[in-house]
Amino acid sequence: xxxxxxxxxxKKITLLLFIGLAFWSCEDEKDxxxxxxxxxxxxxxxxxxxxxxxxxxxxxxxxxGSLTNLTEMALYNNQFTGSxxxxxGNLTNLxxxxxxxxxxxxAxxxxxGNLTNLxxxSLGGNQLTxxxxxxxxxxxxxNYLYLNYNxxxGSxxxxxGNLTNLxxxNLHNNQLTxxxxxxxGNLTNLTSLNLFNNQLTxxxxxxxGxxxxxxxxxxxxxxxxxxxxxxxxxxNITWSDxxxxxLYNNQFxxxxxxxxxxxxGAQDTSGCD
Length: 273
Known about the structure:
This protein has 273 residues and is mainly beta. Helices cover 10% and strands 21% of the residues.
């Protein structure tokens, strides 16, 4: 009888061990993929999102378009990839949008033009391609426009003259072509205009003299040519300050306006008379 009891106990122990091992094996087979970081959900009811320099990556999800209470969105200095989702155009209350210095690619979605309350737009320091969507030129509340350090192509259209509230325009380090439109003279509030390191041609329009508040003008490293208008001397720039004024590596022809004659830098004058 004792032997039978011992056998029964041993059998029960063996069965329990088997069940335990089977359970442990199932636990091992569970999905160990880390959960998706839904960083945007914390701002669902907020008016402000500041996640700049927060080591975020992956794509900006279309769900971003549900954050319609936001007035400010800062996602700069991260590692975001992929394209800017068109759903960003749903955030019509935004006045500040900064996604600079990521790894975003593709075209700027035209839906960004829905953000007509924006005063600050920074998409610089990415890998954006294609032309600047025409909708941007209707964002008449813009004060600051940063599209620099991308791979944008096409021309600067006359419609840039619609942005009469613009204070600072940075379109440099792209692949923009064509001439500087005459309508740029409408931007009488400009203090800074940076168009350098593109493939711009043609001359500087005489309308540049309307920028009486301008303290920075950088047009170097293009293919601009012809005469520099005397009206450039109307600008409020310290010409000798190379951090404020640069025209070198173009094709401007002498004689140069007296205010800048010593500061135009190296020019290719082989096409001049």
